[in-house]
Design brief:
The chain is of the alpha/beta class. It contains 16 helices and 22 strands. It has a domain at 2-240: 2-Layer Sandwich (Nucleotidyltransferase, domain 5). Helices cover 35% and strands 23% of the residues. α9 (241-248) crosses α14, α11 (324-330) packs across α12 (369-393) and α12 (369-393) packs across α13. Bound molecules: adenosine-5'-diphosphate.
Length: 496
């Protein structure tokens, strides 16, 4: 009889469920997209009931498939879009407002009002004071839903990120819990004491009565109540999506660096048991925690990565599908001269310039679709190089990068990444690192694995891309990129 773990990957645009075997092989999967709501400029919401229904649908589907395959599912791991915020009524389990999604900027003014506390907030949380994180979103809900604040003061409301909400629903209200990685993205969690922080709660005006209990990533999060799923299963592993990808890539050693190239790009560097404060505007975050020990990470985020390719396809329509970007990019030489700075949604780390906007430099009359495609892919490599440079300034030099996400199916992209970063790029056999990480964590708790060393033995690399570019060409590419970024920042300044 094959043993399996059900991994629920609740992402920003879809919910996925995958059953993995003990070797980390995906045995069956199901996926469902759900609606994105944009009620006002800069606002992004999800319907919590739609998220819950999509979760039930994909879980039922994979559990049925697993049964047909003769697989015994032992437990559940959950990974989720981070920071997205929900508040629900403890008595009814019904959210009092839609989920406010991580991309939502409605609380920018509240962050501006708190600016004087910015440094203290960063010192405690490792994050920046930004609407991206959960705290101001919770306060917004409590202040805008009638009676919510008084209900919260009386202990009648619960806050949770998506993991917490799903566990509440799966256990039918028996467990109000989260894990350290999700907690570390709220701006309310002190990453040094590894506990909710009273001063942060006071500054953000969030009553501590709404907060979930925080557990390690491999822990007893509760058991799904009878009838919710075809089986009652222990929920044994939880981590936010980027941290789960670090675990799924077996990035357990200090210095391990993983970079996920989906819609955006998130690079996490394992810094071991010490949180490393960044001098380069990287975030310090909990990478994972096991048996009461936290392992920290430095995180750099690029807002648009695969989204550049979506823009090529759906925006300017120069390609029919994402794959076509590779053929076009390959058709040009290194000295094609066109640079795209893809600041479509501002520039993330290490610049953090929300008002920067995208720009293209170096066009001539023979500039073609190929130039756009090539420049869009190159830009993601240059931006990753800027992140690695920031990490090096913070004292950590990497010699290889573990990559995953939709974009790394593109061989040309992976090779150019190796060329620009001057490190080996390791592409895993299983590119579903996020879901796999949640399964590994649950497997640890359930005793399928004795320790992380045993998990590391399962690491399977499909291909390694090694640097091969002429150093002069690389230097010229980087010089063009830096000039283009400086010009873009200058334009952002002039543009207000
Ligand atoms: P997410 O989880 O954020 O939805 P995925 O990891 O599923 O993202 O990756 C999807 C992204 O990868 C899309 O933005 C798509 O444009 C990009 N992508 C997929 N295949 C390729 C390819 N062959 N070359 C470049 N980009 C690609």
């Amino acid at each position: 009889m094959t043993q399996g773990i059900l991994s629920i990957d609740q992402g920003t645009t879809s919910t996925r469920a995958i059953v993995f075997d003990k070797q980390g092989k995906a045995l069956c999967s199901a996926q469902q997209e759900f609606t994105q709501y944009f009620p006002k400029n800069g606002w992004v919401e999800h319907d919590p009931e739609e998220i819950w229904q999509s979760t039930l649908t994909v879980c039922h589907s994979v559990l049925d498939q697993a049964q047909a395959l003769g697989v015994t599912v032992e437990g559940i791991g959950i990974t989720n879009q981070r920071e997205t915020t929900l508040v629900w009524d403890r008595a009814t389990g019904k959210p009092i407002y839609n989920a406010i999604v991580w991309q939502d900027r409605r609380t920018a003014a509240m962050c501006a009002d708190l600016a004087a506390k910015g440094e203290q907030i960063t010192a405690k949380t490792g994050l920046l004071l930004d609407p991206y994180f959960s705290a101001t979103k919770i306060a917004w809900i409590l202040d805008h839903v009638p009676n919510a604040r008084s209900q919260a003061e009386q202990g009648e409301l619960a806050f949770g990120t998506i993991d917490s909400f799903l566990i509440w629903r799966l256990t039918q209200g028996q467990a109000h819990v989260t894990d350290t990685t999700n907690a570390s993205r709220t701006n309310l969690f002190n990453i040094h004491t590894m506990a909710w922080d009273d001063s942060l709660c006071a500054w953000f005006n969030v009553p501590s009565s709404v907060l979930p209990r925080v557990l390690d990533c491999a822990a007893d999060f509760g058991t799904s109540a009878p009838g919710v799923l075809p089986l009652s299963l222990p929920i044994a592993g939880v981590a936010g999506d980027q941290q789960a990808a670090l675990v799924g890539q077996c990035g357990f050693n200090k210095g391990a660096l993983k970079s996920t190239y989906g819609t955006g790009c998130f690079a996490l560097l394992n810094t071991g048991t010490e949180p490393l404060a960044s001098t380069s505007k990287l975030l310090t975050t909990v990478g994972y925690s096991l048996n009461g020990q936290a392992y920290y990470a430095l995180e750099g985020s690029i807002f648009t990565a695969g989204a550049n390719v979506q823009w090529l396809r759906d925006g300017i329509q120069v390609i029919d599908n994402a794959k076509a970007s590779q053929v076009l990019a390959e058709s040009l030489d290194y000295d094609h001269g066109v640079v795209l700075v893809p600041a479509f949604a501002g520039l993330g780390a290490p610049h953090w310039k929300p008002n920067a906007r995208a720009a293209i430099y170096g066009m001539t009359r023979d500039t073609s679709n190929a130039h756009f495609a090539r420049a869009a892919l190159e830009a993601v490599c240059y931006q990753t190089n800027d992140l690695l440079h920031a990490m090096a300034q913070d004292g950590v030099q990497s010699t290889s990068v573990l990559v995953d996400g939709g974009m790394v199916a593109n061989d040309w992209f992976c090779q150019f990444l190796a060329d620009i970063l001057q490190v080996d790029i390791q592409r895993p056999v299983n590119m579903e690192s996020t879901a796999l990480g949640a399964a590994f964590l649950a497997g640890l708790q359930l005793g399928l694995y004795a320790n992380v060393e045993e998990i590391s033995e399962l690491k399977a690399i499909e291909r390694v891309f090694t640097p091969s570019i002429d150093p002069h060409i690389r230097k010229a590419c980087l010089a063009r990129w830096q000039a283009a970024v400086q010009s873009t920042l200058l334009f952002a300044q002039a543009n207000g």
